[in-house]
Amino acid sequence: MENLRKKGLSANTLRWIAMVGMLLDHLWGTIVSGNLWMTCLGRMVFPIYAFQLTEGFIRTHDRKRYALRLLVFALISEIPFNLMMAGSWFFPFHQNTIFTLLLGFWVLQTLEALREKSCKLWKGILYLLAAALLTVVGFPDYGWQGVLTVVLFYLFREGRFAKLGQLVGMTLLHVVLAEGQTLPWLFDLPLQSFALLALVPIWLYDGRKGWGGKLMQYGAYLYYPLHLLLLVILRRLL
Predict the structure, then answer these.
(1) What are the CA-CA distances from residue 66 to residues 7, 50, 60, 120 (Å)?
(2) CA separation for the pair 15, 19 (Å, rounded)
(3) 94-114 b/e with 16+ CB inside 10 Å = b?
(4) Stated pTM of the model
(5) What average pLDDT score do residues 144-173 get?
């Protein structure tokens, strides 16, 4: 199947795009405030990671190990995330993005188990309700919209109307239902609307892993807490 696709962007190229966008967004939020374009580009980051999570969910040979890796890096990232968000090592009112991805992974696992009938309906519903509850009381980054973004890319991964479904779903989640800062010079358009730009590199993805292998994969995980910690240090020094 991969051989039939035109050569486009690899998984690792998407990682680079996401890491650069994340850095711009977090620079804007810490030490380079006022440059709104930086956080506009940063809105692309989460949808790219949500898309890559669905790809990893489908392609991995060991989902338990995948979920454990997400949990480990979510825990590692929490203190740097808290320091950046609140200036304190403990801040229970907002959890880092990897927890959101982990909840999305849980929902995908439950949906697939229900589809394959390897999980009883009542148990699957309980799992989904538990995940929904955690998005409310656990305050993960992007909340329920983030988890549903993961589900969106899973449901519309392939097929004739996949891109249309992604576009409609992203518009609903990140424009129509978006909350937070708006842009008055763009008819009060939500800042989160720029998340739709993520569909450009996502649609150019060609299924290749790209150069870097495991080093790039784990480096991308480590990049998240390390760059947060570095920005916290720089903010205190400047």
Answers:
(1) 27, 14, 7, 24
(2) 6
(3) ebbbbbbbbbbbbbbbbbbeb
(4) 0.92
(5) 95
